[in-house]
Design goal:
Length: 87
């Protein structure tokens, strides 16, 4: 059983802020380092071995591309101290 409640949060950003977040993520991926980001007050640690997916959806005249990072919670127990963004 999980010790954290389920949640689903989405927030829009201006292009420059979104690009900065992606750039920081890409830097961590290239250096094979874990990625840490703060989302709605919670620090999220993404381990180096996370799975990266790109998803495309088309429905009702709209299109969507999602960049997803997936991992098991047990794998996300990394050391603190990585810089974090607040989403």
């Amino acid at each position: 059983m999980s010790d954290k409640p389920d949640r689903d949060i989405e927030k829009s950003y201006p292009a420059d802020q979104f690009a900065a977040k992606l750039r920081r993520l890409a830097d961590c991926i290239e250096r094979d380092e874990p990625f840490t980001i703060q989302i709605a007050g919670e620090r999220i640690h993404v381990p180096r071995d996370a799975i990266f997916d790109v998803e495309h959806e088309r429905e009702d005249g709209e299109e969507e591309i999602e960049f997803q990072l997936k991992w098991s919670r047990a794998a996300s127990r990394t050391a603190d101290g990585d810089p974090a963004d607040d989403v």
